[in-house]
Amino acid sequence: MMYALLDKEVLSKRGLSLAKLSQKIQILDIPIAQYRNKIGSLEEKRDDLLLIRKFYNGKLIVNDSIDLIDYADGLHIGQEDIRVFNTQLEKAVTIIRKKIGNKLLGLSTHNKAEILEANELNLDYIGLGAYRGTKTKLEAKVLGDEALNLAKLSKHPVGLIGGLKLKDYFDKQITYRVIGSDLYEN
């Protein structure tokens, strides 16, 4: 299943419209999309979520900005960001769940230890990557086919991320093919 990544910074650098990409993922019938904006204000992010909703009616996940959960169907959070809530991950997830309720909750993972930690948490899915190198996250460790083996360790559905192409398909251990840049280029 495809999972679209709408990265505001990447779109802005490429001169691409969030509205047009939202229309595209609706036409492609992509069931889940994540909006990521690491540098915008809360007001800008809220306005962007409302804009996406005008054109896209699938599940909309907001990255890291728990204060905007009322405008989204879920929250995706990174390894560093989850620890802001509590250094003990089970407590952090409890705090997050109190705020987001039964909405979707995803956590970024990058290795076996993080996946095994995630297995003990009340999550709906994990993100795992990077599968391939990308121009947008140069610092990401590329896992390659090791990611496919790591995915088998997860008790949660896995969203494989990092350089995925629209044409990529994987065995059942990968629930979501998280596609960013390839959506922008095709």
Describe the structure.
By secondary structure, the chain is α/β, with parallel strands linked by helices. It has one domain: TIM Barrel, CATH 3.20.20.70. Helices cover 37% and strands 21% of the residues. It has eight helices and eight strands, in the order E-H-H-E-H-E-E-H-H-E-H-E-H-E-E-H. The chain has helices spanning 8-13, 18-27, 42-55, 79-85, 89-100, 112-119, 146-151, 181-185, and strands at 2-7, 32-36, 59-63, 74-77, 104-109, 125-129, 158-161, 176-179. The chain has an eight-stranded parallel beta barrel with strand order 1-2-3-4-5-6-7-8, surrounded by four helices. Strand 2 (32-36), helix 3 (42-55) and strand 3 (59-63) form a beta-alpha-beta unit. Helix 4 (79-85) packs across helix 5.
Please specify the SSE layout and strand pairing.
Blueprint: E1 2-7, H1 8-13, H2 18-27, E2 32-36, H3 42-55, E3 59-63, E4 74-77, H4 79-85, H5 89-100, E5 104-109, H6 112-119, E6 125-129, H7 146-151, E7 158-161, E8 176-179, H8 181-185
Parallel strand pairs: 1-2, 1-8, 2-3, 3-4, 4-5, 5-6, 6-7, 7-8
Helix pairs in contact: 2-3, 4-5
